[in-house]
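[Q] Does anyone have a clean structure-token version of this?
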Amino acid sequence: MLEGKGRIWKATAKGGQVVYIPFGITTDSAYPFTHKETVIVKLDPKNKRLIIEKEKNSKSDVTRGIDKSYRSQNHTNLKTPKHKGER
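[A] Here you go.
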């Protein structure tokens, strides 16, 4: 099982949140999701876990090759943006 350190932050004024999943996990061949795919999110309070699953009727399996290709071509060469005052 792959493991990495993610982060959760507020995404909307109403309280929605976003979960960051580390690059090393999202680029692994076993990673089951594609960009902007709709997922099912479940809360398991007994085991203190958040479960993210594929939608049963998801069409993302058809576009998986396109999304993986896009990720490998466009996201591996991105440079970290410079902060104010850096050159």
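[Q] Thanks! Anything notable?
[A] Confidence is low (pLDDT under 50) at residues 61-81.
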